[in-house]
Amino acid sequence: MIFPPPPPPPVTSKAQPAYYRLRDVVRITALSRSTIYRRIAEGRFPAPVHLGGKASGWAREALQCWIEDPACYTAPTPPQAAAGRRLPMAGAQP
């Protein structure tokens, strides 16, 4: 009886993800969740990116910048409109 050759092994991807979720960031940095968010507020850790719905993640490049020099890392400052300030509505009184 002749058997067919075994199927090839599954291809596993060694590619790095584009974004890391909080669980991965905690594991990679060895910082707690509260420490990560405190450092984000202080501008000493990269802020997460909104991925859609309730999901957010950290860009691989931003984390790499922090990993290379965590003591001297400073987050880039966003423009004021993007920093959470609301623009006044047209015709609204100040």
Mean pLDDT: 83
In helices, the fraction of residues equals 25-40%
**Rg over C-alpha atoms, rounded to the nearest angstrom:** 21 Å
Structural class: alpha+beta
The number of helical elements comes to 3
Can you describe this structure?
This protein is of the alpha+beta class. It has a domain at 19-71. 29% of the residues lie in helices and 12% in strands. It has 3 helices and 3 strands, in the order βααββα. The chain has helices at 22-29, 33-42, 60-68, and strands spanning 19-20, 49-52, 55-59. A 3-stranded antiparallel beta sheet has the order 1-3-2. 7% of the residues are buried.
How do the strands and helices of this protein lay out in sequence?
Blueprint: E1 19-20, H1 22-29, H2 33-42, E2 49-52, E3 55-59, H3 60-68
Antiparallel strand pairs: 1-3, 2-3
Give short descriptive properties of this protein.
94 residues; alpha+beta; three-stranded antiparallel sheet; 3 helices; 3 strands; 29% helix; 12% strand; elongated
The gist of it:
With 94 residues, the protein is α+β, with helices and mostly antiparallel strands. It has helices spanning 22-29, 33-42, 60-68; strands spanning 19-20, 49-52, 55-59.
